Amino acid sequence: xxxxxxxxxxxxxxxxxxxxxxxxxxxxxxxxxxxxxxxxxxxxxxxxxxxxxxxxxxxxxxxxxxxxxxxxxxxxxxxxxxxxxxxxxxxxxxxxxxxxxxxxxxxxxxxxxx
Amino acid sequence: xxxxxxxxxxxxxxxxxxxxxxxxxxxxxxxxxxxxxxxxxxxxxxxxxxxxxxxxxxxxxxxxxxxxxxxxxxxxxxxxxxxxxxxxxxxxxxxxxxxxxxxxxxxxxxxxx
Lengths: 114, 113
Prior knowledge:
The complex is a heterodimer of chains A (about 110) and B (about 110).
Chain A lengths: L4 E3 L2 E4 L5 E6 L6 E7 L5 E8 L2 E5 L7 E4 L6 E5 L8 E8 L8 E2 L3 E5 L1
Chain B lengths: L3 E2 L4 E5 L4 E7 L6 E7 L6 E7 L4 E4 L2 E6 L4 E6 L8 E8 L7 E3 L3 E6 L1
Parallel strand pairs in B: 2-11
Antiparallel strand pairs in B: 1-3, 3-8, 4-5, 4-9, 6-7, 7-8, 9-10, 9-11
C-alpha cells in the first residue's frame, strides 16, 4: 500500500534555529498538506499546496513557516526561527483529489524545541 | 476554531459490544466527513467517510451515520475488538476546494477483553 514518508521521526532543536521537516507524498497525488498536533490537543491544519503554490493556509502558518516542493518527490516544511510553542507532532498528508477519499497521512515528525 | 467537536474525550466498551463515537459540526457547507484512527506516535489512519448527501455508509464492522439536520455524525463499530483501542478523530472537509480538513478533538476508545 502506498505510504507518505516523513523524516526525521524526531527532531530536537534549539529555540531560534531553523528546521526543515521532510515528506515524500504518494507519487500520483496532487495535493499536499501539513498538519500539526500539540501534545494532548487536536490535529490542526497548517497549509495545503497544489500546483506548486499554497492553496490555503491557517492563522498558525505565519511568516516563520514556508513550504516547498523542491523536486518531483519531496515536500518540505521550514520553520525559520523556532519557538518553544512550535513543539508538536507535524504530519504531512497527500491526496489525489480533494474529496472524501484518499487523504493519506505520514507517521509524523516529533519536533521538540528546547 | 470549534467547527468540529467531539464532546466525549473517552469511551470504554466491552469486547464484542457496540462502540458509538459521536461528532458534531457547525458549518453546513462541509461536503464530506471522515473518521480517522490514531495510535500513539503514528499518523492518523483513514477508516471510513461519508458524503454530505448520504446518511449512512458501511464498511465491514464500521458504519458512519450522518444527520444533517442535527449537524451530527456518529461512528458505530460492531463488534468492538481490543485492537480497536485507539484515538478516533472525526474530520470535515469540502467547505472550500483546497482539501483542508478540520478535525475534532478526538475520542479515546478502550475496548476491554
